[in-house]
Amino acid sequence: MDRATELIPEVKAFMRGIEGIGNDLCVVLVGSAARETQTENSDVDLLVISKEPTTDLDVPRRVHLVRATYDDFLKQLERGEDFEAWCVRLGVPVHDNGLWSEILARPESKVWPSWRKKVVHGATRLFLASELIEIGDPEASAEELLYTTGHIARGLLLKNNVFPLSRPELEDQVRAIGYPHLAAMHQQLRTNADNDGGDFLRRCQLYSKRLLVHLSAEDYRNCSKEIEKKKRTKLHKKANSK
Question: pTM for this one?
């Protein structure tokens, strides 16, 4: 076990709980705790990798557990998914039964995440946030806009050949590549700082759309068309059911 993880009580508790099956699992500390940027409100994020799907693991309070099989994790890496890419670049192994070393040696671990996927993820969240703003749910819309701006930040960083770090570190990263307004907006949403309510959320909404179009107008447009298509299908089904 890495010395840094020995100091985290939740990690020690989780490892005690899997003593009988430890040889079947690989455990990696990920998220802000792996970068030592966690706050007192942060969960402890652990990735568990095994040859076969795992169930019935004892998960301590404040531990957020991500499970993956060896094959599925490699597939996600090959597809350019940034969570898996983050894990292989910045994760801290707590217990390696050999699977983690194998993954790090595979060519899939060198695949650069897709910034264009961040446009699609960000646009999807933005459309949901817009709906929530319209129905007057500021708390839920602020949460969706936090995800939106996070996806945008990651997309911009990846496109600029900078690997995104944990959520609290994104702000300094995007400032460094020339997006101070995005950094301030993300920080305000992340920390639930006082704002001017609906006006702030609408500014976030408009600025997020502008950045998504800036990243890829084509991907944003295609995502918009797909969401509108799903809405029409849903309304059509609802009308026919009456």
Answer: 0.82
